[in-house]
Amino acid sequence: MSFKTIDDIKDPAGKRVLVRVDLNVPMKDGKITDDTRIRAVAPTIRDLSGLGAKVILLAHFGRPNGEVVADMSLAPVAPAVAAVVGRPVAFASDCIGAAAADAVAKLGNGDILLLENTRFHKAEEKNGADFVKALAENGDIYVNDAFSAAHRAHASTEGLAHHLPAYAGRSMQAELTALGAALGQPKRPVLAVVGGAKVSSKIDLLENLVGKVDLLVIGGGMANTFLAAKGVNVGKSLCEHDLADTARKIMAAAEKAGCEIVLPVDAVVAREFKAGAANETVGLDAIPADAMMLDVGAASIETVKTRIDGAATLVWNGPLGAFEIEPFDRATVAAARHAAARTKDGKLLSVAGGGDTVAALNHAGAAGDFSYVSTAGGAFLEWLEGKELPGVKALGA
Ligand SMILES: Nc1ncnc2c1ncn2[C@@H]1O[C@H](COP(=O)(O)OP(=O)(O)O)[C@@H](O)[C@H]1O
Ligand SMILES: O=C(OP(=O)(O)O)[C@H](O)COP(=O)(O)O
């Protein structure tokens, strides 16, 4: 796929450039805990600002479902972007309408403005034509630098590309090039590790993924849905019981494709979701009805390590447990360090991605030793499946 990049923009000085970035960063108590995604888009912001463009950032945060949700405001993210970029970043309380137009009108050449969460409007996820037009009113040019949101055909990730001259940002370009280089022709066996919490939005893509990889290790919240589908009593664990049929369909597809699915054999359970909560490791037949599985257990960790030892290529999205809260970070940290060590020894090509997965690798001190770390989780997995990502396709020249 060929597309124009920001080097192709003619006379950018003074132009209003709407830049779609992914600022969906991990946050705790209003503080950003991992700024990888901000650092990833900084080159695009700096370059456009340096060329004298008026840089207007569009982004989503969380899943507010079209409502204005105070703790999903991007307001606290503006100073974090300013700190990384090294230039002031103004903020507007809406991404369309008077608030946005007034803030855009105040911009001088090279200035940077962040608009409020696009998902505060229902029409963003519906890619509504009127909403796309309302966004486009504030721009002369559109740049998409959000590879990690490119699997969404939303107004700010896809629709705008059809209304304004569209270009790929530096991070979008770099991600596609790096993933192609690392995984274009992966050395087998290929091991995929999938965990995390976004079960309903990621489970469907596992059906195709099992046709592409040799082995699929499932952990984290994702594993609970599979275990429940196999009849395990998962207590109060994060689990989408209504996706049991989907899980069974994926297990059948994997068997047909010759892809082995490896599920946890034990779990660390607790009754509270907080640091230092009383916890114990139990077998799958002993999960208390009032407890949650918050990490995979010691025996499962050993299995994951052994599977990593047997792989030539590792692709990983989604932590194996609730790694933000100790001690439920053990499996994720152990697997990350093990994969990093194998990579350092030249025995493994390792690619990991996802907002929280990157934060987990940083927490484990392992990110630097992975072959490649992508900002993208779901988008990376869809790219791996061979799917055309709507946000990338719309940039096609
Ligand atoms: N067993 C579990 N129970 C509850 N939450 C979990 C569990 N395992 C992982 N998680 C949560 O999954 C989240 C990350 O999932 P996800 O958003 O899918 O990953 P990514 O952002 O890397 O794509 C983390 O916040 C982590 O706490
Ligand atoms: O965090 C993101 O994806 P990820 O959890 O797959 O890494 C992106 O910002 C997309 O968010 P979404 O899955 O709510 O569309």
Shape descriptor reads: globular
How would you classify the helix and strand content by structural class? alpha/beta
The CATH C-level name of the largest domain is Alpha Beta
What's the architecture of the largest domain, going by CATH?
Answer: 3-Layer(aba) Sandwich
Cα radius of gyration in angstroms: 21 Å
Mean pLDDT: 97
Main sheet characteristics: 6 strands, parallel
β content, as a range?
Answer: 15-25%
- Which spans of ≥5 residues are poorly predicted at pLDDT below 50? none
Number of strands: 17
Fraction of residues in helix: 25-40%
Describe the structure.
By secondary structure, the chain is an alpha/beta fold. The protein has 2 domains: 6-171, Phosphoglycerate kinase, N-terminal domain (Rossmann fold, 3-Layer(aba) Sandwich); 178-384, Rossmann fold. The chain is 36% helix and 17% strand. It has helices at residues 36-50, 77-85, 97-105, 122-126, 129-136, 170-183, 199-209, 220-229, 244-257, 298-309, 330-344, 355-364, 378-385, 390-393; strands at residues 16-20, 27-28, 31-32, 54-58, 90-92, 112-115, 141-144, 166-168, 190-194, 215-218, 260-262, 266-270, 279-283, 292-296, 313-317, 349-353, 372-374. The strands form 4 sheets. The chain has a 6-stranded parallel beta sheet, sandwiched between helices. A 6-stranded parallel beta sheet has the order 11-10-9-15-16-17, sandwiched between helices. A 3-stranded antiparallel beta sheet has the order 13-12-14. Strand 15, helix 11 (330-344) and strand 16 form a beta-alpha-beta unit. The longest helix is centred in the first third of the chain and has 15 residues, at 36-50. The protein is globular. It starts with 15 loop residues before the first strand and ends with a helix. The mean pLDDT is 97. 1,3-bisphosphoglyceric acid is lined by residues 22, 24, 63, 148-149, 152, 198, 201, 354-355, 376-378.
